[in-house]
Specification:
single chain, about 550 residues, alpha/beta, 21 helices, disordered N terminus, disordered C terminus
Length: about 550
């Protein structure tokens, strides 16, 4: 259970203890949600120097609420009998102007009425230090960074401190405070009054005598045995369990037991990574599904059918697919994690299947309506067999139901004209046909204003102009189709689907010829897609709607 270290707790003394100087050093560099504080734990390097001067040192790096409270209570037990007291706090602080709190590593932005359990009241520390007037020193390392994590009533940093009589308070940056602690404060019988006056980078408040020998002589202490390398069996077992759980709370519990443990750095990093990725559990759950690439393509296809743009159907879940998943989750009342669960995949598949059926039903209705209009126009034009009627039909329906019939009949008419035409007229027309350019046909018209092939020449001029106007669009369509990376197997499948719908794509051989392009245009026209005659993502999604593994890159 987490505890708020209150002022009441700080003045509740335990039983009598041995008379020894006592120091409390709390430094936090890694905050879970409030960012990192450079040099936040550097004050802890002064522990050895204080111990050499006879201090019993209670220190803790990157402490959470529970371990901070325990370390502070251990120090409190030594306060009543201590001759000298030193407290150093380095990290982030919050204040409402009258009160100030030292924030522990797991602290979130405090509020006016809810400073949070992960906060240590500076006023309580000062009241404890007041038990040794003239022999108490509080060092505060604070460096606000303009955090916007606090509510409007609470600011970052220190407020006005009400310092008890006989207590000295020094404040400065983490580097300045650490330098003072490892310098003048570590010197035997140091004159701190002089050192404080000379420390331009520290602000001094409270008890400031002109001259004061604060620190004791260095004492001889037995050499401590070397700490065993590596983790103990208990720590190793706890770490294995912590990694297996992989939660913030598990890593916090490990740090609570072993704040200086072998894996403390890894635990801090893991906590930061988990907090930085709020949807981590959802990501791990999706990864556990081990979706293969064809399944991912199927999901992308389903999203595309439902008008959620995945920016490609390649089996790779990039930013486009993740955004499409997020949008779909929002529309369907799921948490917007951008990662899918088995239930969501099943629902997405069902929605896509229904949508595909709806789209095909609508396409069939439009196809039948277009076919009726096509037949009606044919009956009024090409069915009569004359050249004007046949050309009028092809102008309206170049890919129509009777386009091949009209083209064949016009070819016969042209052949008949060739036989009837004069040799010179026929030769000029053959030259124009061989060149097949607008200028060649114009030359023919100029030379033979009443020539037998005048209508054919005008028709080819109009057709070539239209082809020129569409050339750029055609080039873009070709590039889009190439970018799909469809292999020969998929190309044959496309032709099979077109043939099954009676669109006459020609031989099913994986090669897109003139007939295939016309069949694609017909398919696109019936579904109100851009009728370019080339495949794009929307056409492939619709055409292969019931095939999961057909959208394959080479």
């Amino acid at each position: 259970m987490r505890h708020l270290l209150t002022s009441t707790a700080l003045i509740f003394w335990a039983g009598a203890a041995l008379a020894q100087d006592a120091a409390l050093l709390l430094g936090t560099e890694r905050y879970e949600t409030l960012g990192r504080l450079s040099r936040g734990t550097e004050i802890l390097d002064a522990a050895d120097g204080l111990q050499e001067l006879g201090f019993e040192v209670f220190s803790l790096p990157n402490g959470r609420a529970g371990t901070t409270a325990e370390t502070a209570r251990d120090w409190l037990e030594r306060v009543p009998e201590a001759n000298r007291l030193v407290v150093a706090l380095s990290g982030r602080f919050a204040t409402d102007g009258a009160r100030s709190w030292f924030l522990t590593a797991e602290a979130e932005g405090p509020g006016l009425l809810t400073p949070g359990a992960a906060a240590l009241p500076v006023e309580g520390v000062l009241r404890a230090l007041a038990e040794a007037p003239g022999r108490s020193l509080l060092l505060i390392a604070v460096e606000p960074d303009g955090s916007d994590s606090f509510d409007p009533w609470v600011g970052e940093g220190l407020g006005a401190l009400e310092i008890p009589q006989g207590v000295t308070v020094l404040t400065g940056s983490p580097r300045a405070v650490a330098h003072f602690m490892q310098g003048p404060l570590a010197e035997p019988r140091a004159d701190l009054s002089r050192a404080i006056r000379e420390a331009d980078d520290l602000e001094a408040q409270g008890y400031l005598p002109r001259a004061r020998v604060f620190m004791p002589e260095r004492v001889e202490t037995p050499e401590a045995p070397d700490a065993p390398e590596g983790a103990s069996a208990a720590e190793a077992a706890l770490w294995r369990g912590t990694v297996a759980l992989g939660t913030v709370e598990a890593y916090r519990d490990y740090l609570g037991r072993y704040p200086r443990g072998v894996h403390a750095e890894k635990a801090e990093t893991a906590i930061a990574e988990i907090i930085a990725e709020p949807d981590r559990d959802a990501r791990l759950a999706e990864e556990a599904l081990d979706l293969h690439r064809d399944q991912r393509r199927d999901i992308q296809r389903n999203l595309s059918l439902l008008d959620f743009n995945t920016r490609g159907i390649d089996g790779i879940f990039g930013p486009g697919t993740r955004q499409a998943i997020t949008n779909w989750q929002q529309q369907n009342g799921f948490s917007q994690t951008s990662y899918l669960t088995p239930e969501q995949i099943s629902r997405l598949d069902a929605q896509a299947a229904r949508r595909a059926a709806e789209l095909e039903a609508e396409a069939e209705r439009q196809r039948q309506q277009a076919a009726r209009a096509d037949r009606s126009f044919w009956e009024e034009t090409g069915s009569r067999g004359d050249e004007p009627g046949l050309r009028a039909y092809l102008d309206r329906y170049p890919d129509g139901l009777f386009a091949e019939t009209a083209a064949d009949r016009l070819a016969l008419i042209e052949e008949e004209k060739r036989r009837a035409a004069q040799a010179e007229d026929r030769a000029a027309w053959d030259r124009a046909r061989e060149a097949d350019t607008i200028e060649a046909y114009r030359d023919y018209r100029r030379a033979f204003a009443e020539g037998s092939f005048g209508e054919e020449a005008e028709a080819r001029i109009a057709a070539l102009r239209q082809e020129a106007a569409q050339s750029e669009t055609r080039a873009q369509a070709e590039q889009i189709e190439r970018a799909l990376g469809l292999n020969a197997l998929t190309a044959r499948l496309v032709e099979q689907r077109l043939d099954a719908q009676g669109l006459e794509p020609g031989e099913v051989d994986g090669k897109f010829d003139k007939q295939t392009r016309r069949a694609i245009r017909r398919y696109q026209r019936d579904r109100e897609l851009e009728a370019s005659g080339f495949l794009d993502e929307a056409t492939v999604v619709r055409l292969l709607a019931d095939s999961v593994s057909d959208i394959v890159n080479p």
